[in-house]
């Protein structure tokens, strides 16, 4: 999921859905190996949830990564791109803003409880024009209550706007460059290490070391979800040892890779 993608902006609604048939609408999608590489917006809130595979939503300011049991909240009007790992099974909720006055104005990743997962699955199977006064309407109300209570999780990577930092971030996606330190990047860009360090902290809220570590760990989620060996993933992400990778993963996500994907 490279940061080097910068396709032209496209503002659109889904062609078959010019408006929501109900304040809460569910959609089922199977994405065999799909990158929605256009930027777009929706006039409604979107909740993207993968029951299998890993989803990524990228805005101008951050990457939001959602493996199973997590979902990405995208507010109305926020320009974004969506990427998915192979064989992703996605459930999307489209929500009229009037139904979620408590909703966050910012993109975020939410934890999906077992109850919320089943509510999303059940609701997504309903017809578009379900009975709002009957059982489907009550199901929608419970779903929104559970969604309101869903906690945020730390699966976001802030993206800098400075062109020099963007070049560094794009370079860190390259296996031949990911081990370069900030001083070496400074030499390449003709700027001091101190300046780059100060810019990283100012634009992302993270030091260069912490930003790079979070990027590596987020990039590890897709191969881990697909069943690749943890040792192979650790080495591919630039870690010298399995123990160092697991320790960093636990610090970031509060669980080992095995525990994370068993939740």
Automatic annotation (TrEMBL):
Keyword Chaperone carried by entry: no
Keywords: Activator, DNA-binding, Transcription, Transcription regulation
Keyword Transcription tagged: yes
Annotated ranges, domain HTH araC/xylS-type: 166-263
SUPFAM superfamilies linked: Homeodomain-like, RmlC-like cupins
Domain of life: Bacteria
Stored PANTHER family: HTH-TYPE TRANSCRIPTIONAL REGULATOR NIMR, TRANSCRIPTIONAL REGULATOR-RELATED
Protein name in UniProt: Helix-turn-helix transcriptional regulator
Source organism of this protein record: Ectopseudomonas khazarica
């Amino acid at each position: 999921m490279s940061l080097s993608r910068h396709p032209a902006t496209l503002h659109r609604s889904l062609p078959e859905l010019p408006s929501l048939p109900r304040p809460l609408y569910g959609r089922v999608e199977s994405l065999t190996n799909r990158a929605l590489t256009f930027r777009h917006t929706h006039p409604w809130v979107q909740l993207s949830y993968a029951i299998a595979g890993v989803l990524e939503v990228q805005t101008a300011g951050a990457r939001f990564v959602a493996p199973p049991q997590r979902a990405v909240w995208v507010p109305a009007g926020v320009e974004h791109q969506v990427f998915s790992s192979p064989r992703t099974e996605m459930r999307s909720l489209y929500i009229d803003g009037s139904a979620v006055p408590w909703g966050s104005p910012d993109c975020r990743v939410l934890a999906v409880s077992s109850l919320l997962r089943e509510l999303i699955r059940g609701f997504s199977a309903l017809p578009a024009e379900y009975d709002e006064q009957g059982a489907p309407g009550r199901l929608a109300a419970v779903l929104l209550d559970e969604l309101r209570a869903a906690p945020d999780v730390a699966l976001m990577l802030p993206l800098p706007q400075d062109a020099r930092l963007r070049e560094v971030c794009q370079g860190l996606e390259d296996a031949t460059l990911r081990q370069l330190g900030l001083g070496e990047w400074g030499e390449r860009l003709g700027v001091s290490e101190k300046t780059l360090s100060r810019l990283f902290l100012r634009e992302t809220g993270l030091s260069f070391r912490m930003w790079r570590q979070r990027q590596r760990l987020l990039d590890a989620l897709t191969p881990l979800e697909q069943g690749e060996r943890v040792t192979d993933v650790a080495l591919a992400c630039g870690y010298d040892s399995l123990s160092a990778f697991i320790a960093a993963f636990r610090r970031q996500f509060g669980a080992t890779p095995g525990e994370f994907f068993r939740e």
